Amino acid sequence: xxxxxxxxxxxxxxxxxxxxxxxxxxxxxxxxxxxxxxxxxxxxxxxxxxxxxxxxxxxxxxxxxxxxxxxxxxxxxxxxxxxxxxxxxxxxxxxxxxxxxxxxxxxxxxxxxxxxxxxxxxxxxxxxxxxxxxxxxxxxxxxxxxxxxxxxxxxxxxxxxxxxxxxxxxxxxxxxxxxxxxxxxxxxxxxxxxxxxxxxxxxxxxxxxxxxxxxxxxxxxxxxxxxxxxxxxxxxxxxxxxxxxxxxxxxxxxxxxxxxxxxxxxxxxxxxxxxxxxxxxxxxxxx
Amino acid sequence: xxxxxxxxxxxxxxxxxxxxxxxxxxxxxxxxxxxxxxxxxxxxxxxxxxxxxxxxxxxxxxxxxxxxxxxxxxxxxxxxxxxxxxxxxxxxxxxxxxxxxxxxxxxxxxxxxxxxxxxxxxxxxxxxxxxxxxxxxxxxxxxxxxxxxxxxxxxxxxxxxxxxxxxxxxxxxxxxxxxxxxxxxxxxxxxxxxxxxxxxxxxxxxxxxxxxxxxxxxxxxxxxxxxxxxxxxxxxxxxxxxxxxxxxxxxxxxxxxxxxxxxxxx
Amino acid sequence: xxxxxxxxxxxxxxxxxxxxxxxxxxxxxxxxxxxxxxxxxxxxxxxxxxxxxxxxxxxxxxxxxxxxxxxxxxxxxxxxxxxxxxxxxxxxxxxxxxxxxxxxxxxxxxxxxxxxxxxxxxxxxxxxxxxxxxxxxxxxxxxxxxxxxxxxxxxxxxxxxxxxxxxxxxxxxxxxxxxxxxxxxxxxxxxxxxxxxxxxxxxxxxxxxxxxxxxxxxxxxxxxxxxxxxxxxxxxxxxxxxxxxxxxxxxxxxxxxxxxxxxxxxxxxxxxxxxxxxxxxxxxxxxxxxxxxxxxxxxxxxxxxxxxxxxxxxxxxxxxxxxxxxxxxxxxxxxxxxxxxxxxxxxxxxxxxxxxxxxxxxxxxxxxxxxxxxxxxxx
Lengths: 287, 266, 379
What we know:
The complex is a heterotrimer of chains A (about 290), B (about 270) and C (about 375). Chain A is mainly α.
């Protein structure tokens, strides 16, 4: 075991660096620079003196940031619900599928997950834009006369998030549903449940760990999503990931970007900690 | 076994789900062979976008950088991640265990913008020139965590008595790991490497934050093109990437299945 | 009866002052945090013994085995093999091998490679390994399975590969952790005899951990009964069964009845016990007892006879009503309720067909036994 500790130190340090730099974001490195030429010890107090919370005050005063956080929260919540609504029947069907098909079907779910995220988002532009496939199709079957404006709206963002994060929801759900014992449902039916009540009283409660894991896996990254709102969303789409990006790359205001990140992190700490607890609990059960 | 339960409802929801998942990709592939420059209007079959793609030097350079970053970072991340997984599953309780597992799990769920920004600030604070190596380091850091999770989920079900048996029969701990544990967990280590590799070649956000002049990865290149609107060359490039990844994943999963059947594990 | 058994084993090595034990546990304690798995244990195991550790799960028997194999280190005390302290020597440097409960066969190696694994670690030459592996394959009769992978073998075959692998290095001591636990009953019984023959013909020392008392009784030369990290008794199977030193041991091995009472008189090894109901019962004790002390008469059900007529010329007689009869084919166990509400079990061989059985439910019966059948337990 001792040799492991030595090897373990190397990755440990790299990870430690991230966690430190996560914290270091509250010390925006641009306004005060740590000047080590004067000697490390003497420079640290000066360094901390130069710090203040003006970036955070700025965040509170400017309602752009408030709106971004709130609308991210809204987008993430609504799209998580949609992912759950679409993902649950699929996972359920997967778990019920004949055993010999299951491997292939699961592979089909995973496959898009391995292909480039960016490309999958890109593929929606052609579908959603005004002269895109969806509008052609809807006009062809006669539901609409004039093309719908979908691209560059929040609807496009929802579609993009649901589409990209669907596998994240299906896989934990499938894992939870697949290991469920069929005889439990048979027992419920035997005791007088209908198929529908058996589902709500037995299957669904037992799949809760999968539901929770899936929701976390979709909600947390959706919260900080940047690529989808940037490519599919329009100027009205406010999401905090996008705000952070433009603050950083377009306005070159690194301290504010860092402050945005710290606040976002604080908002996410609770779900992340909950997620980790849940994961550890599940691992304990397996072990 | 329970095929009689595979009702219409289940079949429909699966079919619709798969249509939803695959239709966009299929359309993208079909229109990469479109001769018209208008991406959504079919103008006849052509492979000219593939030709022009291969003549586009900046795309080729970016692809080369991406592959290099992917290979280096996936390999190092696999080694470090496997060790981290060993520590997580084996070391029992030690000081800072919660902190350690927290650090392993957090990049998995952390929004990429935060990871990217914090790594960038770290590199700036260290005064490192940004470029190939900073992207690689950043990718090692976050894909290592995925490796650790994949490998540790295999290690949890690994029968410890196999390792004890090896030691009992005269192996040093290192030998026991190399001769017994590693060969058995190898499929999941390979899977973890593949995951790390695809994560790396797929990453836009972290690479954008941590790259510097001269080091442009393929996703960054694609992104800058996509912002300008649809582009048939991108369709062609995407098709190639999708085919490469699909073939890779399918071959890997067939190999994994065979290896499993051969060993009759668990 | 018990005295005869004791006399029989006088020549055994653990009673010979001149033979040094192969393994010594000296005041060994093993703690996991607050939990004490092994509590100040002192134990000697001699060469060529087939030593069984028996106890309920969590009694510390597996910890004891793992201490010997080197997977655990004692918190205090020392373990000696052949006079050498091995307490802190890693498992790969010990001349002790273990056969695992799960067999722990390497799934990615075939039978040959599995058996030769330990020899390869010693850096033996290829020919040497080949020769020894062939020997072992012949020993466990698996010659034609040499190139199979573990998952292509049956449970019994896997068990034999595991055995061959742990014997290949000719260990001074072979540890067997529930070696037959995964086999079905028939196969287990046959394998018990194979193990015994093997141990005898190879002249090795075996230490077996089991929770199956019949298995321990069948295979071992001596049994150590463990409870909560403490060894309650170490003796030959016959002594453990016939002369247990505590109620725990006698209850753990086989079926037993206890009758509580007070010592009213003792004449040499013959003790008279008075129960609370005023009955006088005669029993056997190897050691002198205090008059007036509370003791328990311990008697095996098969030593209690049951009859519908009152027996003559017997000292120990109790009357009761048949409450229940457990029929198990060769024998029947009668649960007889006494007047004071206690139940005493009596076992009778079914020498006649079931329909000819004369005792049935609710019958009034007499239970009786000889003067030496019951033994006195004060603990």
